[in-house]
Amino acid sequence: RFFGLLLTSLAAWYLGYFVAAHVPQNTVSIAVLQEIGKKPVLRAPAPKRQKCDHWSPCPPGNFAYRILSGGGKERRAKICFEDEQLLSERGGDVGSGINIAIVNCKYEKKICVTDSTDHSGEMMHFIRNAPEGTLLLMATHDDGSTRLTNEVKNLVEELGSKEIKNIKFRSSWVFIAAKGFKLPDNIQTEKINHSDQKKNRYNGWPAEIQIEGCIPRNL
């Protein structure tokens, strides 16, 4: 028994010596040995960015839109159409009041934009002169109600707004309308959030709100 134990020890020592002498040192490392037995970690690929920062892409043959109202003094309104920022703080074309962008959705990238206006007369002229077959995208920043006349409210109501006559001081309001054609019933076209001192996210200002969706090109 002693002789067998001795023979086994000598064989183990020789095998270890042989491996150390003939196997390159960088072939097996402690780190590699530690990785053995670990479960593989599956890493999901980073999600692909969609137009106008949608969570999911619009179906083929659709325009993507996203309208975000202002929030507080620092967060200004944004209007995006087909991944193009028509109005944004970076573009320097957003102001207090109701910001409006006009898009001719029959011809991609044929876009006309106006900055915000506090004057009801200018707003009425702008809307009335928008060509048939265009989209009008609107968003408030700061206050868009103080100088808004009933005549303008009636005009916006004719475009399909259900909230324009409910707009109050510093209400956050976003709206998309079509001139000369009808938008699908299943898309989000309007949202409003009134100032409430007990619920305001910012000091004296309600939280910003947004609407987004997809509009078929063949309307």
UniProtKB/TrEMBL annotation:
Principal subcellular localisation of the protein: secreted
One GO cellular component term: extracellular region
Boundaries of every ILEI/PANDER domain copy: 96-180
Keywords noted in UniProt: Disulfide bond, Lectin, Secreted, Signal
GO molecular function: carbohydrate binding
Signal peptide interval: 1-21
Subcellular location: Secreted
Pfam families: ILEI (PF15711)
PANTHER family given in the database record: UNCHARACTERIZED FAM3 (PTHR14592)
Family: Belongs to the FAM3 family.
Protein name as catalogued: FAM3B protein
Organismal lineage: Eukaryota, Metazoa, Chordata, Craniata, Vertebrata
Gene name for this UniProt entry: Fam3b
